[in-house]
Write the structure tokens for this entry.
Amino acid sequence: IEDLKAAAPRPVEGDGSALPVDTVVIDKNGDAWQHYEANGWEPIGGCCCMHHALPDDGAPYTIVWTPEENTNE
């Protein structure tokens, strides 16, 4: 059950800057965004415009994928 909870879509809190690198979210229009380490957020398959935080005009955002934590440490 815990795995299902972790995999379930959930809302983004704040501007998304605290989310792990490689996280993927969906905006209110159904467009996917990916979090990149150095540059912030970029739409997947869209324009090559980087944003340091998720744009307000796309809210609400839903987290659809986060990278797995390294449990080998």
Notes: DSSP finds one helix and five strands in the chain. Helices lie at 2-7.
